[in-house]
Amino acid sequence: VKPTPFCILDEIDATLDEANVHRFADLLSEFSKDLQLIIVTHRRGTMELADAIYGVTMEEMGVSKLLSLQLKKQAG
């Protein structure tokens, strides 16, 4: 049996306090070694573990624009 190739989590960290957001992010980092994670979040602590961040904004009424940011991890 093959494991699932990815997992989608939608604002799963919304009710956590800051300390637990960081603990949760550490747990997600462990999972991400074997699994691709797609996470919807507004929490900085969760975003900090990302390799890439995507956002959607509306520059003019009714027109959505997709933004992306590739993050580089620091060694060490």
Count of discrete structural domains: 1
> What is the fold named in CATH at topology level?
Rossmann fold
Q: Roughly what percent helix?
A: 10-25%
Mean pLDDT: 90
Strand order of the largest sheet: 1-2
| Percent in strands | 35-45%
What structural class results from the helix and strand content?
alpha+beta
Straight-line N-to-C gap: 35 Å
Biggest pleated-sheet summary: 2 strands, parallel
Low-confidence stretches: none
Q: How would you sum up this structure, described in words?
A:
The model has no long low-confidence stretch (mean pLDDT 90). The protein has one domain (6-70): Rossmann fold, CATH 3.40.50. It is of the alpha+beta class. The strands form two sheets. The chain has a two-stranded parallel sheet. Strands 3-4 form a two-stranded antiparallel sheet. Strand 3 and strand 4 (63-70) form a beta hairpin. It is 24% helix and 36% strand.
Write out key terms for the chains shown:
single chain, 76 residues, alpha+beta, Rossmann fold, 4 strands
List the topology elements.
Elements: E1 6-10, H1 18-31, E2 36-40, H2 44-47, E3 52-60, E4 63-70
Parallel strand pairs: 1-2
Antiparallel strand pairs: 3-4
Summarize the structure.
The model has no long low-confidence stretch (mean pLDDT 90). The chain is 24% helix and 36% strand.
